């Protein structure tokens, strides 16, 4: 398949999520019990909740919570991947050892445990997804660096750079075009996309766990709703039949599916020829 | 610094450091937070006697003293008391209940992963099935756990916290851990790629022509990578226990850590995080030992008799 099709589809999903987040209202609108639990067709695009508020507002606020931290985390992991790949091309064994040691220690702990410890340390007034997303990115970076370094290794590492220098190419062209754009791109983009998905899942998990315990989420202020709220409202339809909240669950899953689809399409579009 | 022993040595050092580093870092960060740590347990505006409490729980003489005393007590099986979650309750009692549950959950969660590893190694999984597993692996743990929780509640209703209900919750949790977030599908494809790549090597094909078994030839070379992959998967499962335990209401270390996190109960968070650090250290240690063992096995000098050496050198029998 032509790589432009998945690239455009991924871009469209991303642009939609950014627009949703950008246009998200500060607070949910007032309840209107005459419009409660309307389906997708009765109150497009997603229907309404038990108080008659449009689920679109939940979707928009959830996007607002997730998009910026996920993108920044993805970019951070991508940059670390590029750094790891370029470092291998420099061919310094001592630097390699130091980086490997850094990766070993960072990668040794379960990520969720580290996130929870960090969440404990963030004062309640400064809570938000961004610091947690950046910590998640830091925990993901050793894997991205390792994979990018393996690509550089297969390329020939320092010998590849020497060969291109012998052909008279400039440093910028060698590193930015030949190594990063042509060879590291698939790995770096895939790792960045995966990190973005993982940050979304992380937000979903942390918010859902908070909702279950009926406490404030670590990832957003109380005025905002997360996609986890959709899952929580919709969950009741699984346990109690004919409650009419099935469309809320489907909306939550649809939004999660969009993020997964974006990541898959993005990775596919950036794949090696 | 690029000897075969570099990585295993790093892992061993990290394994030795982790159980000490984790409580140390958390302790340092508690003191880095604004305000007095004792005020977290007992805010002066809500309760009196903050100073007495501070002295009783070793919070009055700085982070180093607190850390030193905590580690010393932990070596004697005393993990301190909960600050907020179950204020004053010994964390040792909480961990005694939680750790076995989490270990059972993890062990059961490893079953699908090991099954995937065996299937991947055998190379007998039809190619058409792999994308189906991969698609299923995209489902996040929280979503699958939610569906599993609904299934358990539908099946058991009010009795879902009885003995049978708890057992089914554990089983459902294990299935979620083993299948969600690509645990099964990634193991299948990862181990499959490792084995199929190695099977194509010339030395394996020569060994087959000599009538030797593939596995015996392949295993020494791929064991380090295989152990690395399995450690990563186990860590992924350990990470997932927090979500699964809270959603499925399983009383494990993950649930304990989550409750401690919600209430900023460092008395619970430090021991729970240290329990995870110990588990991670064990995994690192096992990987290092396996790597060293394989390296020594592969580098072992072949035993040849002096007569055989003469024959090899001169070509005369």
Would you spell out the secondary-structure blueprint of this structure?
The complex is a heterodimer of chains A (273) and B (317).
Chain A: H1 4-22, H2 55-90, H3 93-107, H4 111-121, H5 129-155, H6 158-166, H7 171-212, H8 227-239, H9 246-269
Helix pairs in contact in A: 1-2, 1-9, 2-5, 2-7, 2-8, 3-5, 4-5, 5-7, 7-8, 7-9, 8-9
Chain B: H1 6-32, H2 37-41, H3 50-56, H4 62-75, H5 91-122, H6 130-137, H7 141-156, H8 163-179, H9 183-199, H10 202-209, H11 214-247, H12 253-262, H13 266-299, H14 306-314
Helix pairs in contact in B: 1-4, 1-13, 5-8, 5-9, 5-11, 5-12, 6-9, 7-8, 7-11, 8-11, 9-11, 11-12, 11-13, 12-13
Short description:
The complex is a heterodimer of chains A (273) and B (317). Chain A is mostly helical and 273 residues long. Chain A has helices spanning 4-22, 55-90, 93-107, 111-121, 129-155, 158-166, 171-212, 227-239, 246-269.
Question: What's the CATH class label of chain A?
Answer: Mainly Alpha
* General shape of chain B: flat
Percent range for helical residues of chain B? over 70%
Biggest interface in this structure? A-B, 40 and 55 residues
Oligomer: heterodimer
Return the CATH architecture of chain A.
Answer: Orthogonal Bundle
Question: What is the averaged pLDDT score of chain A?
Answer: 90
> In the CATH scheme, what's the topology name of chain A?
MetI-like fold
- Contiguous runs where pLDDT drops below 50 for at least 5 residues of chain B: none
CATH level 1 class label of the domain at 95-300 in chain B: Mainly Alpha
CATH architecture of the domain at 95-300 in chain B: Orthogonal Bundle
Specify the biggest β-sheet of chain B: none
Overall average residue pLDDT of chain B = 87
Would you kindly provide a written description of the structure presented here, covering whatever features stand out?
The complex is a heterodimer of chains A (273) and B (317). Chain A has helices at 4-22, 55-90, 93-107, 111-121, 129-155, 158-166, 171-212, 227-239, 246-269. Chain A is elongated and about 75 Å long. In chain A, helix 2 (55-90) packs parallel to helix 5, helix 2 runs antiparallel to helix 7 (171-212) and helix 2 crosses helix 8 (227-239). Chain A has 273 residues and is mainly alpha-helical. Chain A is built from 9 helices and no strands. By secondary structure, chain B is mostly helical. In chain B, helix 7 packs antiparallel against helix 8. Chain B has helices at 6-32, 37-41, 50-56, 62-75, 91-122, 130-137, 141-156, 163-179, 183-199, 202-209, 214-247, 253-262, 266-299, 306-314. Chain B has a domain at 95-300: Orthogonal Bundle (MetI-like fold). At the A-B interface, helix 3, helix 4, helix 7, helix 8 and helix 9 of A face helix 1, helix 7, helix 11, helix 12 and helix 13 of B.
